[in-house]
Specification:
The chain has 296 residues and is mainly α. Helices cover 81% and strands 0% of the residues. It has one domain. The model is unreliable at 142-146 (pLDDT under 50). It is built from 13 helices and no strands. The protein has helices at residues 4-30, 32-54, 62-90, 92-98, 101-114, 120-138, 152-178, 183-204, 211-216, 219-246, 249-256, 259-269, 277-295.
Amino acid sequence: MPYFGELIALLTAFLWSGTSYAFTEASKRIGSLQLNINRMILAVIFLFAIIGVFGFSIELSFSQIEFLVISGIAGLVLGDSFLFKSFQLIGARLGMLLMALVPGFSALLALIFLAENLTAANLLGMLVTLTGISVVVMDRNEESQTVFHLNKLGVFYGVLGALGQASGLILAKFAFEENEVNGFVAAFIRLLSAVIILLPAIVLLKRYQNPVKLFRKDLVALKAMVTGTILGPVLGISSSLIAITYAKIGIATTLMSTMPVIMLPIARYYYKERLTGRAIMGAIIAVIGVAILFLL
């Protein structure tokens, strides 16, 4: 099927858009640390069940497992941790802008390690799309009362977060290129490796609360977390791995980065937020970039 990987990458962006709203609601109620580890544990359980029910093959070579484990550590442990720290220091809006570096890092690493070359049209489409995304992300809502400023440490963490996520995808693609791997199986291994590292560390630091007691008091938070986990760590991560299997990593990550643009109609029609002319213009530019990636 033509553009299968690119279409899956766009589907991933839609899934992550829904995830962001669900996790925003859950994090307000239980905190980002609790949400982060609990969503991973729940995703591992869901993925284990999916693999068992559908009978997906788990026969992988040692090197494939090794690549996926290191991929999970690079992307989900280091990449996400640096990203969250960047958000804390410079705000989610500016942090998301630094995430626009992920396609660039991915394309460069893919060129060096996978010999994936991008055409002039590919590069043009990526540039136009990322420009549109940047315009949307940097658009400031006048109603926002929280002001963040760029600082060196926040930018440094943001760059490390982008590099971690890009490296995670490159390592995962090594596993896919060696032999066929089911996307759900790959996501399971990546998430399990992250849980094995993060959970003991959080428990030893005495920062992990009993999830049964936590969610018994707040069923709304539980519903939001379950919804976000299904859309993001289960379906979103799995589809992102499928996308990089069938499309060049630079293009796939660019399309997956359109999440801020996809979130605009959700914000307008579901949350009744006012969209500025700048945000709409950025969305149009991003759509033109996506069209270039598909048509040229």
